[in-house]
Design a protein that fits this description.
9 helices; about 200 residues
Length: about 200
């Protein structure tokens, strides 16, 4: 009976210690944050039960976030060039250039499954287990900001692709939505920078 009591006390202490790790602000939901990962939510269990696989997955996730961040940096540094396409066209077969939003979706991982930012939100959530306890809320907020702005940037880019065809549309509408998406890309980029800093990725 004494042994049972000690075990119960130990279990209670473990729960208290664990609860500190999952203490969030009112604006952040642990359940909501982890639910998207599904079966991958229990990263800690995965790391302990399958070390070889987990190590490989974690290293790949780290590399993808770094590479995705660098690609977004390149996109922002070369925004005009990357969102403009030139070619021959028109009745006189003259060279002309037009703004195009397609590259925005490419860089954010919405066009190819082998892109480093493909399903980046899940990648980031898997990496949560590596975040220091004193910065876990900051990590979650960065992930939420990334997800929201990446989706918004892709949506603005998609709307832009129809800007000229819609009633009352024109090239100016295309450019308007492309530039709006740039603001979201900048926030997504900065959110990844925060994650990289928290995890100490190089």
């Amino acid at each position: 009976r004494q042994s049972l009591c000690l075990n119960n006390e130990d279990n209670q202490e473990d729960k208290i210690i664990a609860s500190r790790r999952w203490s969030f602000t009112d604006s952040v939901s642990r359940a909501g944050f982890l639910s998207i990962v599904g079966g991958s939510a229990t990263v800690g269990i995965l790391l302990s039960s399958q070390p070889a696989y987990a190590l490989s997955q974690v290293e790949q996730d780290k590399a993808n976030i770094l590479k995705g961040y660098q690609r977004l940096q390149y996109l922002l540094d070369n925004w005009e060039k990357e969102t403009t396409i030139c070619g021959m066209g028109g009745d006189k077969l003259e060279s002309s250039c037009e703004r195009t939003p397609l590259k925005v979706m490419d860089y954010l991982g919405y066009k190819a499954t082998n892109d480093p930012l493909f399903k980046a939100e899940k990648t980031l959530r898997r990496l949560y287990a590596l975040a220091p306890a004193d910065r876990d809320v900051e990590f979650i907020e960065a992930v939420e900001a990334y997800a929201e702005n990446a989706d918004e940037a892709s949506s603005m880019a998609f709307v832009s692709s129809w800007g000229e065809a819609n009633p009352g549309g024109g090239k100016d509408r295309v450019e308007l939505f492309i530039e709006r998406s740039k603001k979201n890309v900048k926030v997504a980029h900065d959110s990844l920078a925060t994650v990289i800093d928290i995890l100490g990725l190089q």
